[in-house]
Specification:
The protein is an alpha/beta fold. It folds into 2 domains: about 120 residues, Aspartate/ornithine carbamoyltransferase (Rossmann fold); about 70 residues, 3-Layer(aba) Sandwich (Rossmann fold), CATH 3.40.50.1370. It is built from 8 helices and 8 strands, in the order αβαβαβαβαβαβαβαβ. Strand 6, helix 7 and strand 7 form a beta-alpha-beta unit. About 30% of the residues are buried.
């Protein structure tokens, strides 16, 4: 798999290997012994909007692993067609990290460049954030098996990635929101048809919160 766009692009086993590697890198980071995996690689960071946490995490992590980092200015597809931008960027970079784009634009860009593209957040999903959360939870809980997550709020990009996580890990994710903000029923049915875990929705917070391992919301 070339890109990291959605958790659904990967199998359960592949995602577990990523979490295992994250555990190793956490230890190496604390020992100031990060491997030079990105040595002689050029990492392009294309971050739209004002967020700073993801930007700093990717920049510091890339540099710690030996990568050369450069920021890409401008909005996706505004100055030039996305396919042209993709062809240009693959001449200069060996990896792209993109945050803040429309999801369809990110997918289109990834399909028009030969270098890996990482979804650092779109309007639809936020897979890196959820993988980081899962790694943290697993480290403290010991396992993800049977994890019960209550997501409070409308289906944001974080909520969507939690749904995708339940499709690939043996966890339960329940969305709690007023009726008009609940996830589309057919989408949940489709995800549940391929899920290792389970996905549900309700308007009744009291019915699920007492049994939750994790209460998660977006602001």
């Amino acid at each position: 798999m070339k890109d990291f766009i959605s958790l659904l692009d990967y199998t359960h086993q592949e995602l577990v290997r990523i979490l295992d590697r994250a555990d190793v890198l956490r230890t190496l980071w604390k020992q100031n012994q990060m491997p030079p995996t990105l040595s002689n690689h050029q990492v392009g960071l294309w971050f739209l909007g004002q967020g700073f946490r993801n930007r700093l995490a990717f920049e510091i992590g890339s540099r710690a692993m030996g990568g050369q980092v450069a920021y890409i200015p401008g909005d996706l597809g505004v100055q030039e067609p996305l396919e042209d931008i993709g062809y240009y960027l693959e001449n200069w970079f060996t990896l792209l990290v993109v945050r803040g784009a429309r999801h369809d634009d990110l997918v289109y860009l990834a399909n028009h460049t030969r270098i890996p593209v990482i979804n650092a957040r779109t309007n639809f999903s936020h897979p890196c954030e959820i993988m980081g959360d899962l790694q943290f939870i697993r480290r403290h809980r010991g396992t993800l098996d049977g994890l019960k997550v209550v997501f409070v709020g409308e289906v944001s990009n974080l909520g969507m990635s939690w749904f995708e996580a339940a499709a690939r890990f043996p966890i339960q994710v329940t969305q709690v929101a007023p009726e008009k903000f609940l996830a589309n029923r057919s989408m949940i049915t489709e995800l549940n048809s391929q899920a290792m875990g389970s996905i549900s929705r309700t308007t009744d917070l009291e019915s699920v919160i007492a049994d939750a391992d994790l209460v998660y919301t977006d602001c």
